[in-house]
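Q: I'm writing up a methods section and want to include an example of the input and output format. Could you take the sequence below and give the corresponding predicted structure tokens, formatted cleanly so I can copy it straight into the document?
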Amino acid sequence: MKKLFVFLTVAGMLTFGLHTTVLANVAAQEAETEEVVETDVVQEEPSPADMMAQEMAPETEDQSFHYILKEQFIEGGPMFMSIILLCLIIGLGLCVERIIYLNLSSTNTTKLLNKVEDALKTGGVDAAKEVCRNTRGPVASIYFQGLDRYNEGMEVVEKSIVSYGSVLMGRLEMNLTWISLFIAIAPMLGFMGTVIGMIGAFDAIARAGDISPTIVADGIKIALLTTVFGLIVAVILQIFYNYIVSKIDSIVNTMEDSTISFMDILIKHKK
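A: Here is the clean output for your methods example:
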């Protein structure tokens, strides 16, 4: 009986100790879980300073890009980079002038032909000339030249239209040679800056008597920057140049098609 009592006592103590250990482990795990939750909550709520930093981030990126571009332009060397920039400004100015002129030269030829035909039927040649005089664009000018020589015969009218059409084509293509010149000059200036930068790098090697990368880095950087900016200017102007050429081709095709219809109207009215 005594042994049984001792056995039960030891078993009870062991059971109580195990239960206490389990409770302690559970309490520790709950404490760790609460700490993790509190940490997560704290991390999920940004401070006002962090919120301001996030709001100011785009401006910082824009300013850094602006400053980087400015620094790269200055590091490219003032002599060649200024000339390349001048080519870009003048070339863009000529491109904008041509685009505005070509847009103003576009005409609804179908509507104009109908007006000229109606004027010939109602008021004769003088009324048709008045319609062409009040309409802007090269097509109306060609019509006016043809109507102005209407009394001299259809052959003279046709020659007048062809001759004046050539003159107007020259006006449409004005300044294109200058734009193509700047397209060719810009990368050439960049390559020239590249050659001069490489010459400076080799001079630095000769003076130092060493081929260390730090010695030639500045010269090579200038060489690459001038080349990049020259190519960028050429690409930008080339895009505008191709658009202008396509616009001129469209206007010329419209002129040729409409003059054929115009001659048909004059021949019909002559009869």
